[in-house]
């Protein structure tokens, strides 16, 4: 796809969204498998099905609603993607990051990405939340391959601080205020759709991963390229293969994500309020 067509496709999507909801969002949120509840808590919300957003790719994965919610948390304007598409569905990397680029073009100055992940570090249990402080990209794909879109960012983006230091601090503070325990660690993205083998999980641990999943990394790369400040939180929905004593199953992932719903919603709401304050200061 040409540079011209990506920016053109984004402009069409943004225009359609603005016709429904004129207020420019400051904070963007992407909600992973089973984690969509936050989107339903926005005040004065407009909800737009992805099918009504021109060029927006649609997910067929259970637990991913496919709705863009725009509204407010207290007085902070927010745009929230309930559902995302994944590389393992067969979407090209540039399609996988269409949604977050759209959030950036809508005006979001910071984006919080969430996901469901398998716990690799021995201290992680199902139901724990983990702030992602760095990642390992094992998908074999990168959304920036191809001609660079200079309008978005540089050819060779620095990834030293892909997870914004200030926003990580905001996430820690939000967790403290809400009395929620927030682990920290490195997220390894694998292509999927198979869960990992026990040997792959031992390798991930050796490489320095604390959790594994099948999303987030392409989105973080695209946002970093666009110089949009980004933070990410994993909901540990299961112990990774070989650490868990039973086979992995998407239903379990959804059930655990649902169980953490109340904490997760409180944490995200607080994160949104504090990050907007931090941006304004
Ligand atoms: N592996 C990869 N992706 C996942 C997992 C896992 O164990 N749990 C939730 N998403």
List keywords for this structure.
25% strand; alpha/beta; binds hypoxanthine; Rossmann fold; five-stranded mixed barrel; 281 residues; 33% helix; 9 strands; globular
Give a short synopsis of this structure.
The chain has 281 residues and is α/β, with parallel strands linked by helices. The chain has helices at residues 3-20, 93-96, 98-106, 165-178, 198-207, 217-225, 250-259, 261-280; strands at residues 27-31, 43-49, 67-73, 76-82, 110-119, 129-138, 182-190, 211-213, 229-239.
User: How many helices does DSSP assign?
Assistant: 8
| Proper CATH architecture | 3-Layer(aba) Sandwich
Strand content: 15-25%
| CATH homologous superfamily label | Nucleoside phosphorylase domain
Helical fraction: 25-40%
The overall pLDDT, averaged over residues, is 94
Low-confidence stretches: none
For the record, what CATH class applies? Alpha Beta
Report the end-to-end length measured between terminal Cα atoms.
Answer: 39 Å
What is the spatial order of strands in the main beta sheet? Answer: 5-8-7-6-9
Rg, please? 17 Å
Question: Care to describe what's here?
Answer:
The protein is α/β, with parallel strands linked by helices and 281 residues long. It has a single domain, classed as Nucleoside phosphorylase domain (Rossmann fold, 3-Layer(aba) Sandwich), CATH 3.40.50.1580. The chain is 33% helix and 25% strand. The protein is built from eight helices and nine strands. The chain has a five-stranded mixed β-barrel with strand order 5-8-7-6-9, surrounded by five helices. Helix 1 crosses helix 3. It is globular. The protein starts with a helix and ends with a helix. The model has no long low-confidence stretch (mean pLDDT 94). Bound molecules: hypoxanthine.
């Amino acid at each position: 796809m040409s540079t011209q067509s990506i920016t053109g496709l984004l402009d069409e999507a943004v225009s359609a969204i603005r016709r429904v909801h004129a207020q420019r969002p400051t904070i963007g949120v992407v909600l992973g498998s089973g984690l969509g509840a936050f989107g339903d808590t926005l005040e004065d919300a407009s909800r737009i099905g992805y099918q009504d957003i021109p060029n927006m790719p649609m997910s067929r994965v259970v637990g991913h609603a496919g709705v863009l919610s725009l509204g407010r948390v207290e007085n902070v304007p927010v745009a929230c993607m309930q559902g995302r598409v994944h590389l393992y569905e067969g979407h090209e990397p540039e399609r996988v990051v269409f949604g977050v680029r759209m959030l950036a073009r809508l005006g979001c100055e910071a984006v919080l990405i969430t996901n469901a992940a398998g716990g690799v570090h021995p201290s992680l249990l199902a139901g724990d939340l983990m702030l992602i402080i760095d990642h390992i990209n094992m998908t074999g794909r990168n959304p920036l391959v191809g001609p660079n879109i200079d309008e978005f960012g540089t050819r060779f983006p620095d990834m030293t601080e892909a997870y914004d230091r200030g926003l990580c601090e905001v996430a820690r503070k939000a967790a403290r205020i809400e009395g929620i325990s927030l682990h920290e660690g490195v997220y390894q993205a694998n292509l999927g759709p198979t869960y990992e083998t026990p040997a792959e999980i031992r390798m991930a641990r050796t490489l320095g991963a604390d959790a594994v999943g099948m999303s987030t990394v392409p989105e973080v790369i695209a946002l970093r390229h666009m110089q949009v400040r980004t933070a990410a939180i994993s909901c540990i929905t299961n112990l990774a293969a070989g650490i868990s004593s039973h086979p992995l199953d998407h239903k379990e992932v959804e059930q655990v994500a649902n169980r953490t719903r109340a904490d997760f919603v409180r944490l995200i709401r607080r994160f949104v309020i504090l990050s907007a304050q931090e941006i304004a200061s």
